[in-house]
Amino acid sequence: MSVSLNRAYGGGFADPAVDSARAFRAAMNVMAKPGEIRDLDSAQPPAPLSAAAGTLLLTLCDPETGVYLAGACDTPELRGWLAFHTGAPVVAAAEADFAVGTWAELMPLDPYRIGTSEYPDRSATLIVEMDALEQAGATLRGPGIKDSATLSLPDAAALAGNAMLYPLGLDFFFTCGGKVAALPRSTAISEG
Amino acid sequence: MSDYNFAYLDEQTKRMIRRAILKGLAVPGYQVTFASREMPMPYGWGTGGVQVSAATLTPEDTFKVIDQGSDDTTNAVSIRKFFEKTARVAVTEETEKASVIQTRHRIPEAALTEDQILVYQVPIPEPLRFLEPRETETRKMHALQEYGLMHVKLYEDISQHGAIATSYAYPVKVSDRYVMDPSPIPKFDNPKLEMAAIQLFGAGREQRIYAVPPWTPVVSLDFEDYPFEATKADHACDLCDAEDSYLDEVILDDAGNRMFVCSDTDYCRARREAGHVGRLGEEAA
């Protein structure tokens, strides 16, 4: 009994107020500086979620935010873990404030909320689980980037399409193990 | 040890503010609404900035607070002590040593680095508010990028005064999209808005948060024949002889004597310690 309890309810923040403050600082820095990669590993969520994605969910989600668990992320263990630690309701993609999964599981992008022209902030943030995360690949330009930056993106063409919607659009975190990077809608993307 | 939660606010409030900050960074210059809380200080004393700082600070931070450039006004001292007590952060008056700087109405003279965060206290976040009082209309104007009214206002300045008379809270366009109120900083500071640090803006009473990521293009609105001009009093600091800093004018007596001193007290102190002496300054002991 205690083993299964630990699996379902363990892995949260040891010191929630301070751990979430540090985690938010990392999340804010990567969102403010697209292309930057930071450590983010203070939570240990159930498989298949990465430490970085789990930490993001604990830092940003609560009963006011709908979370869409895409594909293999939608397990009873993860639902239980999310409910216990955040109280966030699990919702469909079209209602989600946050969505988490691999790129293939999260596709297509169309259902997610992109905000309205009067409230562009009312849009979803996608947490994309990656096999690798490195400062190589697509070239990024825009706010938060001095000249240009590079980041390994799952699908540069689709993300460039999202940027075309600016100031509407989705914002992305990319997570891999205990690492995180971000791509706001304001970033212009060119291949290679 | 204090009996407050870390950084005073409860966790759910901080999460709500943190989500607003992330969306603000994703759409630079756009004002994100947030459910501003009552803080243990009156509106107008920086409740917006305090809430943004509370959501941003970590125990490892070194915190600095300035009020019109000064570290030692009542407002700055009380906010600094507030976070010293509730977040147990180190505090400093030296710009270079601070990791988070909360400011009322100035940008420090020293260039900030990419490891620093500048938090502004904002009274009226809506740059169009004095031109159009209805929120429904200003929201539409932002949505449609309908900023002609702002240019009319600047034009009326020119027709009445011969120059753009707006000297503080000078409107800027962020990343070629949103017109933003940079808070009531003097327009002398406007060119510094393009900087290496993350800039966060909090308006407590008006319940808005907005942000400017590092290196985001920030253009002060102007006309081809009346270009924007960053102005300051045409003097050197009377204490440290700085010619490049923003100056406060201080009346000295009834006979009309006055002096000009750096508004940034830390900048002035550092220069005097380095041996610079102004017209009314004294040699360092």
Structure write-up:
- Chain A has 192 residues and is α/β, with parallel strands linked by helices.
- Chain A contains 6 helices and 9 strands; from the N terminus they run H-H-E-H-E-H-E-H-E-E-E-H-E-E-E.
- Chain A has a 6-stranded mixed sheet with strand order 1-8-7-4-3-2. Chain A has a 3-stranded antiparallel sheet with strand order 6-5-9.
- In chain A, helix 4 links the parallel strand 2 and strand 3.
- The longest helix of chain A has 17 residues.
- Chain A is globular.
- In chain B, the strands form 3 sheets. Chain B has a 7-stranded mixed sheet with strand order 1-9-8-5-4-2-3.
- The longest helix of chain B is centred in the N-terminal third of the chain and has 16 residues.
- Chain B has 285 residues and is α/β, with parallel strands linked by helices.
- The radius of gyration of chain B is 19 Å and the shape is globular.
- Chains A and B meet through helix 2 of A and helix 1, strand 1 and helix 4 of B.
Question: Features of this protein?
Answer:
heterodimer; A: 192 residues; alpha/beta; Rossmann fold; six-stranded mixed beta sheet; three-stranded antiparallel beta sheet; 6 helices; 9 strands; 30% helix; globular; B: 285 residues; 2 domains; seven-stranded mixed beta sheet; 12 strands; Alpha-D-ribose 1-methylphosphonate 5-phosphate C-P lyase (chain B)
Brief sketch in words of this structure:
The complex is a heterodimer of chains A (192) and B (285). Chain A has 192 residues and is of the alpha/beta class.
Report the average pLDDT across residues of chain B. 95
CATH architecture of chain A: 3-Layer(aba) Sandwich
Number of strands of chain B: 12
Oligomer: heterodimer
Return Rg of chain B in Å. 19 Å
- Kindly give the count of domains of chain A: 1
The coarse overall form of chain A would be globular
